[in-house]
Structures are given as C-alpha cells and as structure tokens.
Amino acid sequence: QVQLVESGGGLVHAGGTLRLSCAASGRRFSSYAMGWFRQAPGKEREFVAVILTSGDSTYSADSVKGRLTISRDNAKNTMYLQMNSLKPEDTAVYYCAARYYSGSNYYIGRYDYDYWGQGTQVTVSS
C-alpha cells in the first residue's frame, strides 16, 4: 500500500505559478505509476498528467501541455506538478494518484488508479 499527501496549493493570479507536491509513504514508491487529476466544482474529475516509474516518460492532457509539468524524485518518494502560466480555468482541487505498475502504458482514467490523496485546492483569479 501507499499513502499520498498533496501540498502546495493556494490562490494565485492568472499567469502565476505554483508547485504542487505529492508525498508518498509506504513501500516501493518507485514501482508505482503516478498521476495528477483535478476536479472543478460541478465537474467530473479529469486527468492532468501521468509519469511512469523511472520518471523519464510522461504524458499530459492537451489542455495543460506546455504549462503544467509532472516530475518525480524516487529518492524522496515525491511527485511534483510545476504549474506555470496559470489560467482561471485551472481552478480545481488537485489530486495525486498511484497505480502499482511498472510498464510503459499511460493510464489516464480515474478508475485506473488504486490510491488517492486528499486533494489540494488551486484557485486562479482573473
């Protein structure tokens, strides 16, 4: 099992930056594919980005490409989401998720993941 805790959310003006962190506890963090999802009020939870176990392979939703970048540090059991050029439509609760998987497929469905953090609020004002 793995436990996930997000941090780094907050209120920022449009065009600003934030860096989210997802700290994992438990065993074998490096064996988990990790993802970021977000959920805006009244909307379904949506995929943002995924990173495979080595950290070399990532995939992001078209809506965030070039602005939000996923990364991980297996030595620190932590995943990150660097958020640049933020827009009001990025406002949401951001969740990190883990799937015990060491292959090369990119899983982008919310039901593909076994473990979730509690979420951190990101609010972008116009």
Q: Your description of this structure?
A:
This protein is mainly β. Helix content is 0%, strand content 52%. The protein is built from no helices and eleven strands. The chain is globular and about 40 Å long. The model has no long low-confidence stretch (mean pLDDT 96).
* SS content category: mainly beta
- The helicity comes to under 10%
* Average pLDDT score: 96
Please compute the radius of gyration using only Cα atoms: 13 Å
Strand content: over 45%
From the N-terminal CA to the C-terminal CA, the straight-line distance is 40 Å
Low-confidence stretches: none
What is the H/E order?
Answer: EEEEEEEEEEE
Major sheet characteristics: 7 strands, mixed
What best-fitting shape do the alpha-carbon axes yield?
globular
Number of helices: 0
Strand tally, please? 11
Q: Could you provide a short overview of the structure?
A:
Helix content is 0%, strand content 52%.
How do the strands and helices of this protein lay out in sequence?
Elements: E1 2-7, E2 10-13, E3 18-26, E4 32-39, E5 46-51, E6 58-60, E7 68-73, E8 78-83, E9 92-100, E10 115-116, E11 120-125
Parallel strand pairs: 2-11
Antiparallel strand pairs: 1-3, 3-8, 4-5, 4-9, 5-6, 7-8, 9-10, 9-11
Task: Give the tags.
single chain; seven-stranded mixed sheet; four-stranded antiparallel sheet; 126 residues; 52% strand; globular
